[in-house]
Structures are given as structure tokens and as C-alpha cells.
Amino acid sequence: MNINQALFVGSSERVTQKPKALHPEFAFIGRSNVGKSSLINCLCNKKNLAHISSTPGKTQLVNHFLINESWYLVDLPGYGYAKASKTTRQKLEKVIKEYVNLSNEMVILFVLLDSRHDIQKIDLDFLFELGESQIPFSIIFTKCDKSGTNVLDSQIKKNKEELLKYWEELPPTFLSSAETGLGKDEILNYINEILKSTIE
Ligand code: GTP
Ligand code: MG
User: Fold this and answer.
1) Reported pTM
2) H helices within the chain, ranges in order?
């Protein structure tokens, strides 16, 4: 599948404020700075659609991008930015939790994990909550261009083994790079398959 048209439709803090035109939503979450907004831009072939920053905490609201006039990519704020004030962190957590739990149109939540690092407690806790709430998710390891092949392979293997301590099987898992476009086709094809199955 190709993205021919990507339009920013609106930012919302509450789920009641999201765009009125309802379409299937594919949302991106993960720790602050993991590369959510960059990956959305990469999927859409646009540099500045979603705002990115080298400083964590850039995305503060839920941003809806209408794709090919028929579905949304949703950019969420990141969780776990240690340097943010407690008030800011709590506010962002509330925005995230409300969207994730109450947005009826969300089909899949892509949980982004940095391919260079061990999975952190905050990520596992977030995944456990998704499991408890039975929210369907997939995993994307980001920034794969930043490591050499061997280092990348062994870190991904380690991270998958860590996840398999808690889940009997892994959800669909992707490797990505917003720099090189790695994973782009796989992620878009996966979305396309889900869209096709929701229409049938
Ligand atoms: P918040 O909105 O703050 O939660 O962050 P985010 O997850 O949206 O991250 P964002 O896309 O803003 O990217 C954070 C930083 O990582 C930016 O400096 C990006 O240029 C960089 N970055 C994101 N993805 C990649 C990638 O695949 N490869 C490399 N090399 N850098 C990346
Ligand atoms: Mg962002």
C-alpha cells in the first residue's frame, strides 16, 4: 500500500475532541523520543507532517493524520520523560490513557521500543496494562540504522526473549528506521491487511 495523501486534521487532549469524521485509527505510542513522530513522517513520505525534536516531550497532544481519505495515523505523546515535571508527566499519561482506552476507532496500537536498548520497566508496565485491558498491539523496534547488524541482531533477540518471559507468543513485530525507511513497506502492508479484513 502507498500513502498518496496525508493530511493533519487536528490535535486533541480529550477523546471527545477528536475529529468528528470517524475512520479506523492506527496509533503510535512509546517512550518520549523513541521516534513516533519521525516514523509517521517516514510512512507518509513527508518531512514535517508530524513535529519532531531531538528534545524529548515534543508531542503533547493526540494528533490525527487522515490517510488516503479513509483512515488515520495517530501520533501520541510519549510516556516516561524523566526530566518533565510531575504535573506534565501526569497530564501526558492522562491524555495517553484516555485515548488508548476510550478511542473506539483504534484498531491497533503500535508500541515503539528503541532497538538500541534493553526493554525498560516503564515499557513493560505499559505493555502489561495493554494486556490487562485487552488492547491489541504490535511492536516496532525503532532507530535500527543506529546500530551495526550484529549488535542490532543480538539486542533484538535479547528484547524478544525478555518479552517472551511474559507472553506465550509475540505480537507482530517490526524493525524500523525513519532514516533509511527500513520497515516502512512491512508496516504499511500490515495496516493494509487489517484494513481489508475490517471491510470484509
Ligand atoms: P516525543 O514526541 O517527544 O514523545 O518523541 P517522538 O517519539 O515523537 O520522537 P521524534 O520522532 O520526535 O524523534 C526524536 C529524535 O530521534 C529526533 O531527533 C529524530 O530525528 C530522532 N529519530 C527518530 N527516529 C529515528 C531513526 O529511525 N533513526 C535515527 N537515526 N534517528 C531517529
Ligand atoms: Mg512526537
Assistant:
1) 0.97
2) 36-44, 86-102, 121-132, 149-164, 184-199
